[in-house]
Amino acid sequence: MERKAFIKTIILAMTGTTVLGNNNPIQNLLSNSSEEKNKWMDILEFARWCPSPHNTQPWKVKIISDNKAEIFYEPTRLVPEEDPLSAFMIIGMTMFCECIKIAATPYGLTGQIKYAEEEVLNANAKNLQLFATIELHADKNTSAPDRELIKKRKTSRLHYQGKAIESTIANELQKIVVEYDNKLTVSNEKKMVEFVLDLNGYTLFSDMDDDKVRTEISKWVRTKDEDAHKTNDGLWYHCMRFPGYLMNNFFFHHERFAGKRIRKVLTKVYRDSMKGTKTIAWIEGNFNTKADFINCGKSMIYMWLHMTKHNIFLHPFGSVITNPNANKQLQEKVAPQENKKLWLLMRLGYSDEPPRSLRLPVTEIIIN
Questions:
Q1: Dihedral sign from CA coordinates of 152, 157, 159, 164
Q2: pLDDT tens per residue, range 247-267
Q3: 278 by DSSP, 3-state: which?
Q4: Measuring CA to CA, how many Å separate 17 from each of 6, 31, 34, 73, 217?
Q5: What's the confidence (pLDDT) of residue 238?
Q6: What Å distances lie between residue 226 and 15, 56, 77, 184, 364, CA to CA?
Q7: Which of 212, 182, 209, 192 has its CA nearest to residue 83?
Q8: What is the 8-class DSSP label of residue 22?
Q9: What gap in Å lies between CA 293 and CA 85, rounded to an integer?
Q10: pLDDT score, position 18
């Protein structure tokens, strides 16, 4: 009889009808679990819009408790041929962690992040790998960018409006980057802008002549709408401002672009897509260790969100950084500080609202 009474009590407790009333520990646990889940779902609904190299979105999240989560990376979403040191993937993962911190601010919480000791991400691992642990702590006075900026932030590959970035905003961006041991240079000089745009156009083909790099990137190319909406990741032609059939030929039938004449024509077409660009910028700093890459990630996300606050878009020129020949030409032109590396090059400006790239739903990010 005692056993039956105990089971009856448990059942009643789970339905909220037990005589324990508002102090029902089981009901409170269920309620707290729901609140916990809803809070994390809300936070990750913002964080999932974080940018990542080639929109690979390598992150997964395991919710440990109401205020603690583990952040993993998925090895199959890395790009080791293009990024052998995991530098840019670590930058992306760091930005994701910072977006979680920012998204938690309205709850009166601030985040403390502890990174795993692994120096280089393991693209050959068979399972998810721990990247960081984040704990949320109460802090009513914490300051952070408006989390709505995370959703508003976009890359714009459209024509820009022919307006240079104001010096006051450039100074604000420089102060943000300096906080994380990096240096931002902003240039409105016409010759410098033209040099960077021409170099980027040249690098478009040169970079893709590397069969290993092209094959690696091609896994993330989405040349059809149905493919893009099926995977919710990758380089969707709609956002890249290239016709789907042209992207398909470029990545999967690269031999068709071997001729100098067709390359010259397409380089001009690509170069013309940069019309209206009046400002280019680059960031340099320490770029050798995981700690350096983490600082770079913090620099980038807070700079980008501040730009978004002022309705400024950016378009990164990653190929110029990763392509050895193009990078050498750039380094000779801008002469970075001694022992510092120029790790980000971009054009900045104002444009019409660009299309939004796709993202994995929160339900695919959270793991058990």
A1: positive
A2: 999 899 988 888 888 888 888
A3: coil
A4: 14, 14, 19, 43, 57
A5: 95
A6: 44, 17, 20, 39, 19
A7: 212
A8: G
A9: 10
A10: 35
